């Protein structure tokens, strides 16, 4: 195997690990979302809280809109149909969940893919600005690949110095 092929192969191996970490981070975030929603729904008296929380947690994987695609209309409809307490409680739960996720997501994703949380956050913001919602998914993957190239290149440089 020539050096270029070996170099590219090492990048693919490292990037694959990073992408697995990214998927794992999304599953961790989904589990946290599920836990928060389940507790919140039990407290505010939502029927079938576990089932509803599971459905919203799965939908929360969608970039940008996530859980808001369900919870915002649910809150508004509750207000319209005269159930202001439920509407307010759903809105508060959604805002709390969103703030919490914005705080923990870069840390969890960064830990799982091997990139510092601040870089993960910056890359995600930059990706969303450049590519919109698709950028939120693509930016960490691109960062993983760039990080893999950087790590493999540095490892090769260290091998050559020996």
Task: Write a concise keyword list for the protein shown above.
162 residues; mainly alpha; 86% helix
How much beta, percentage-wise?
Answer: under 5%
Principal-axes geometry comes out as elongated
Characterize the biggest β-sheet.
none
N-to-C terminal Cα separation, in Å? 21 Å
Percent helix, as a range, is over 70%
Contiguous runs where pLDDT drops below 50 for at least 5 residues: none
* SSE succession: HHHHHH
**Coarse structural class:** mainly alpha
Taking all residues together, what is the mean pLDDT?
Answer: 88
Number of E strands: 0
| Gyration radius, in Å | 20 Å
User: What is the helix tally?
Assistant: 6
Question: Your description of this structure?
Answer:
- With 162 residues, the chain is mostly helical.
- It has helices at 3-44, 49-59, 68-80, 84-113, 117-131, 133-161.
- Helix 1 packs antiparallel against helix 4 (84-113).
- The two termini are 21 Å apart.
Outline the fold blueprint:
Layout: H1 3-44, H2 49-59, H3 68-80, H4 84-113, H5 117-131, H6 133-161
Summarize the structure.
The protein is built from six helices and no strands.
């Amino acid at each position: 195997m020539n050096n270029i092929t070996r170099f590219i192969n090492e990048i693919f191996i490292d990037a694959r690990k990073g992408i697995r970490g990214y998927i794992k981070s999304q599953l961790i975030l989904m589990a946290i979302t599920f836990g928060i929603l389940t507790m919140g729904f039990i407290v505010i008296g939502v029927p079938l809280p576990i089932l509803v929380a599971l459905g919203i947690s799965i939908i929360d994987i969608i970039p940008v809109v996530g859980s808001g695609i369900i919870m915002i209309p649910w809150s508004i409809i509750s207000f319209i149909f005269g159930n202001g307490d439920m509407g307010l409680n759903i809105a508060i739960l959604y805002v709390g969940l969103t703030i919490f996720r914005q705080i923990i997501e870069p840390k969890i994703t960064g830990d799982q893919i091997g990139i510092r949380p601040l870089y993960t956050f910056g890359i995600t913001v930059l990706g969303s600005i450049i590519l919109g919602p698709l950028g939120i998914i693509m930016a960490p993957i691109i960062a993983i690949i760039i990080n893999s190239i950087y790590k493999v290149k540095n490892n090769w440089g260290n091998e050559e110095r020996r």
